[in-house]
Known about the structure:
Layout: H1 3-7, H2 13-23, H3 37-43, H4 47-67, E1 69-71, E2 81-85, E3 88-90, H5 93-103, H6 105-126, H7 163-167, E4 171-179, H8 185-198, E5 202-208, E6 211-218, H9 220-232, H10 234-237, E7 246-250, E8 258-262, E9 283-285, H11 287-302, E10 308-312, H12 316-319, E11 322-324, H13 338-344, H14 346-349, E12 353-357, H15 362-373, E13 379-383, H16 386-393, E14 399-404, E15 411-413, E16 432-434, E17 443-445, H17 448-452, H18 460-471, H19 483-486
Parallel strand pairs: 5-8, 9-13, 10-12, 12-13
Antiparallel strand pairs: 1-2, 2-3, 4-6, 4-7, 5-6, 11-14, 14-15, 16-17
Helix pairs in contact: 4-6, 6-9, 11-16
Organism: Pyxicephalus adspersus (African bullfrog)
Domain Rhodanese: 304-395
Pfam families: Rhodanese, Rhodanese_C, TSTD2_N, UPF0176_N
Amino acid sequence: MSMSSSCNGVLSCSQLLDYWDLRFPDEDLNGSADPTPQSTLKAGLDGSVRKQYMFAKKKAFALFVKELQSTSDSPGQEDVIRWRCCGQELRDLRTVHKHVASLHASEVWKRTQSILEELTITAATTTTVPSPDLDEDTGASAKMSWNQCQISDWLPDTSHFKKDELTSEPGEVLLYYCYCDVTDPQWICDWQRSLCQLLHLTGKIRIATEGINGTVGGSKISTKIYINAMLLHPLFKDNMCLEDFKTSEGGAHCFPDLRVGVFREIVPMGVDPLKVSYKDTAKHLSPEEFHKKVEQYLYESLHEHKDTILLDCRNFYESKIGQFQNCLAPDIRKFSYFPEYVDQNLDFFKDKTVLMYCTGGIRCERGSAYLRSKAVCKEVYQLKGGIHKYLEQFPYGFFRGKLFVFDGRYSISSNDDIISSCRYCGTAWDKYKLCSTDRCCQLVLTCTQCQGQGLTACCPTCQEKGISIHCDIDQQHYKEECECTQKRPKIPKEAL
């Protein structure tokens, strides 16, 4: 590694550690030895690198010590600070520091590595943000229009990362959306495509004049750089925060490719955003508030009170494997059917309090706006952050089963409940597979034993069709006839 490459103070975590081993062989990275005069002298040649490491190490140590802090249980000593670790109570800070340095150096080192990684990611995304133009007379910053810049101006500098750091597994999947006014959706589309390609991310991103909706997968370093890049962009930095990005275990392998496009809606409801706007959405409830509302709803249900509806805004195959207890889960195949479902069940919703939820919150934004536009409900609420955020705080709360996701995983879990069954034998099963018949897009729940018997289609019609097609490989075109869709009413009518 050249000297010049370290002088800017921006190194990848692995590069920094390799460089430290090379330049400071006398330094104990586990923190058990003081720097020697020789290593200190060498460190003087590489001040920015040393400062970056020492800052991370001190911060990691301080955070570890802070987590051990507690207050006394004795009467009159509630304000007395104590530290508890390894089954003993430590009464002064000096003793705590000695204890941590001697017995927990490896844990502090792991945290140091994480902080170094965060520093590197932050540096990569902040050093390339375009500087605003200065007014010639006043020297003040003039407002720069982001879409007048080159797309490359808004891309992070990844030259300090090795390729395997941007593609390593296990990674994670991000789920996010942001409703905001986008004046140049095509520019955002091009920027997102370039950003994802640079970071080796796969997934699906929809951009419209009403905002952005995305789910992408990649290495944990890549997803962190992606989040930082989003939060630094002028269009999103005042409309989004870190909490708006939901994360789950996964990676780039969860998606077949990268698809980024401009659409009329960021979630396809089939209603002109100018007629039903996200700005008319329902009141958002935090997971804690929603949990209390559901708890009250379940209690009232036991006493035959029917004033509240707990409404699942997702598709039938999503709610089939996981849902809130005693919810109303409409038997609809697509979210674009939701407006018609509401129209045909206005009497059912009349004078009711509606608690709405979906996967990450995006469908509830305009779904609740559409329901409110009918002016029949007493009140309408929606779960902020969706089921995803709820499960982060209440993994064993009122949501039971698996959370369906629109990628190769099909579902993620937070509890052990299985609320669905195999389509063929009825045994408890909640792992979806795509119907084995060509050109059928239905999902099927078929257990391992039934799969072994060749039962891999979504219904008997597809099962028969699959056999006939296999026998006639020359057949290329046919009309899809599937019991899964033909025997289900497109728009269900709820009983009053």
